[in-house]
Write a structure and sequence with these properties.
Shape: globular
CATH topology of one domain: SH3 type barrels
CATH class of one domain: Mainly Beta
GO cellular component, one term: nucleus
GO biological process, one term: spliceosomal complex assembly
CATH architecture of one domain: Roll
Number of helices: 3
InterPro entries: Gemin6 (IPR009422)
Radius of gyration: 15 Å
Strand order of the largest sheet: 4-3-2-1-5
Number of strands: 5
């Protein structure tokens, strides 16, 4: 996978991690624009998961954008949404497997499907 030129993320996992919690706008190759807060970026397959606030509802819309569909990525705000960073750190810092399992269950329960 390293044999191609990555024009979006420059094969830089540190840059990908720095985008978590920031508001971005993604344009796809089909000229569809998605904007939202980056929840996670898979450093291997470069799939981006965005949370977009729904205007008519209280929850978030979760959007998955596969790397091959991304035409451009623009950071709209350098401010980091702290709740996204804290969830990640809670999961990493926990040493007890049972505790990790409970944290992941709570995170999964907060998603709007």
């Amino acid at each position: 996978m390293d044999d191609f030129e990555d024009k979006i993320f420059n094969n830089d996992p540190i840059y990908m991690r720095s985008l978590v919690g920031k508001k971005v706008e993604l344009e796809t190759v089909e000229n569809v624009t998605h904007s939202g807060i980056v929840y996670v970026i898979d450093p291997i397959y470069k799939t981006v998961v965005l949370h977009s606030k729904l205007q008519s509802e209280v929850g978030n819309e979760t959007i998955f954008v596969l790397y091959h569909a991304i035409k451009s990525l623009k950071v709209l705000s350098d401010e980091i949404e702290e709740s996204y960073i804290n969830k990640f750190e809670e999961t990493q810092c926990s040493s007890d497997n049972g505790e990790k399992k409970n944290v992941l269950k709570k995170m999964a329960a907060t998603y709007v499907y």
